[in-house]
Amino acid sequence: MSEMISACAKLNLTLDFAGKREDGYHLLRMVMQSVSLCDRIRLDWETPGIRVFCGRRDVPCGETNTVYRAASVFFEYSGISPRVAAEVEKRIPSQAGMGGGSADAAAVLRALNRHYGTGYSARALCELGVKVGADVPFCVMGGTALAEGIGEILTPLEPMPHAYFVVCKPPAGVNTGKAFALADSSGIRGNATRAMLAALKSESLRRVAESLGNDFERVVGLPEIALIQTAMRGAGALGACMTGSGSAVFGVFETEDAARRCEERLHKRYADVFLCEPVPAYGE
Question: Is 248 found in the same domain as 188?
């Protein structure tokens, strides 16, 4: 018996540096949004143990894989004998700041909870998820949310106004560890999140797009990011911003036609270009 599940990517509408804990973890303040670009995962419930398969060479399939770790955490917590095989079809680009690995882990946690009838709440799944990665709790919840701490303190927000996102990842990726090191040396402390919370309350897509901001964008120093943003704005984007620690850039569009025209233009230069939309929270 098997089933297919989707694992939705995320975008950072904002990302502000907010300090550093004594244990070295970085504190952030972010507004995050789940989107319709997703990985697909086929789960087989008859296979003893935990097994993960993926056709991408850059994706590890052993114990370091986020799906493997999520399943391991779930079975250890529940006391259920491990029995799942996961075949991951990657669509979310790597080193993009879109939470691909976290999305996969979260989707598997929700699927395990449903399949085994354990009835864990979303909050309980988030507590398991943070053991796998800081973005996993948000990916468990989905929708639009304020994320604080290392990303695990979540406050659900009203859904953002409907929009179309064009996401473009340049060939160069960004190493998250290096990005945080640059953030430490920069001393930057942005405040885009406060403006974004007010914009979301206004229910104005234009205000939301004008309030985008990412402190990482100011420190990673990839010239391609600014070039993509300029191209997006020239194609009609209301705003454009890098997501996460990069290197993917997204533009916010009011109409599907404008978004598709932008997508077509960017595809002439870049391989990884995607058109997607916001998706709502998953609920309990």
Answer: yes
Report the C-alpha gap between 192 and 137 in whole angstroms: 22
How many CB atoms are located within 10 Å of the residue 171 CB?
9
Give the model's pLDDT for residue 284: 53
Write the CATH number for 78.
3.30.230.10
Question: Nearest Cα to 27, choosing from 203, 217, 247, 190?
Answer: 190
Residue numbers of the domain that contains 222: 164-276
Q: Which of 104, 135, 169, 215 is catalytic?
A: 135
Say if 168 falls within a structural domain. yes
> Among positive and negative, which fits the CA dihedral 249, 14, 219, 153?
negative
Query: For 176-204, how does the pLDDT look when each residue is reduced to its tens digit (9 = 90+)?
Result: 777 778 777 777 788 999 999 999 999 99
Comparing CA positions, the residue from 115, 113, 107 lying closest to residue 141 is 107
My answer on whether 127 and 23 are in the same domain is yes
* Active-site residue flag, 135: yes
Catalytic residue (one of 10, 39, 90, 215):
10
Residues 83-130 pLDDT 10s? 999 999 999 998 899 999 999 999 999 999 999 999 999 999 999 999
**What gap in Å lies between CA 213 and CA 226, rounded to an integer?**
13
